[in-house]
Backbone:
């Protein structure tokens, strides 16, 4: 095979708790991540020239080394030099549907797709955990994006425990096109404001991270209880992002007043806000009402739903 086309879904955070600081400068987290049916299409192709090329239809997405998909290909080339010289270079074409810098893991899921695609292209036969380990060196959300579904993520976000998949819950996403929030800024600001409440000793840190496994939202997920899941949504980063970005707070408030909305929350470091609903009809109605309530062309709205998978191969030639 000379080329693979992969579907790379976005994620939302149903839960994000910041537990403490890590010696590597990152934060110790307890999260619940959920794949959604909003995806980019990634084409990974062998080329005869010994180089990595990235193309993307979205003007805001860089095509150089600052693109995580490029770095994923570079990582595979350095990890597997024999395969790189045998199969030649790689051309990556990204068709963007996921909003950029949105808290939806758009860059991470593209990198995950490149890892999966090159593994197939070079016939490496890597296991899921080997791919996840490689992914963790690129970004905290990359390992989750590989298998996707519903999972608890601890550590930096790279230690995963799968949960029974959810797929019958609808999601409306709202994001201002021109608004971007830097993840690094959000965590740094959180540390400045709330760092004194961080857990410091290792045992307590581990105990707190483990507590998420028996938390209320996990019970609700095990029971596939959409109403209860929506009641237990949580994101610590809202404490810094909402005061700094009143538009995001407004989305949150408008969603909360809509009929049928079971719960609403910011995803990751934002600025995307999502609402959970029981039916597609309700989700479409909420999208319409939101459009009427905030008639700003900069506001992007999507109706999607939870899905049970991460990266999938769409076709190969
Ligand atoms: O891992 P990733 O590159 O996605 O993280 C982006 C930024 O978010 C990091 O540079 C770091 O500032 C912050 N971060 C953090 N703790 C985590 C994950 C991310 O502080 N567990």
Residues:
């Amino acid at each position: 095979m000379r080329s693979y086309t992969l579907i790379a879904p976005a994620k939302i955070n149903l839960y994000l708790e910041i537990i403490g600081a890590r010696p590597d400068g990152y934060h110790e987290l307890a999260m619940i991540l959920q794949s959604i049916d909003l995806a980019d299409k990634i084409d990974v192709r062998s080329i005869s020239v010994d180089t990595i090329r990235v193309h993307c239809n979205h003007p805001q997405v860089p095509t150089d080394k600052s693109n995580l998909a490029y770095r994923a290909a570079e990582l595979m080339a350095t990890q597997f030099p024999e395969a790189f010289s045998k199969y030649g270079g790689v051309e990556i074409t990204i068709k963007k549907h996921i909003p950029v810098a949105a808290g939806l893991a758009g860059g991470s899921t593209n990198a995950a797709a490149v890892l999966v695609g090159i593994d197939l292209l070079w016939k490496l036969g890597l296991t899921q955990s080997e791919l996840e380990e490689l992914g963790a060196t690129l970004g905290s959300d990359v390992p989750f994006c590989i298998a996707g579904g519903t999972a608890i993520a601890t550590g930096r976000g790279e230690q995963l425990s799968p949960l029974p998949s959810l797929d019958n819950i609808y999601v409306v996403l709202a994001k201002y096109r021109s608004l971007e929030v830097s993840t690094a800024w959000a965590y740094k600001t959180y540390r400045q404001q709330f760092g004194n409440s961080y857990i410091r000793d290792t045992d307590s840190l581990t105990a707190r991270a483990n507590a998420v496994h028996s938390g209320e939202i996990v019970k609700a997920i095990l029971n596939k209880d959409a109403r209860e899941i929506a009641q237990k949504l949580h994101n610590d980063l809202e404490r810094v992002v909402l005061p700094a970005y009143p538009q995001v707070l407004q989305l949150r408030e408008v969603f909360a007043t809509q009929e049928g909305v079971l719960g609403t929350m910011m995803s990751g470091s934002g600025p995307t806000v999502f609402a959970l609903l029981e039916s597609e009809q309700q989700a479409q109605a909420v999208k319409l009402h939101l459009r009427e309530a905030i008639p700003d062309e900069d506001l992007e709205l999507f109706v999607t739903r939870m899905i049970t998978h991460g990266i999938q191969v769409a076709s190969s030639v």
Summary: The CA atoms of residues 130 and 255 lie 40 Å apart.
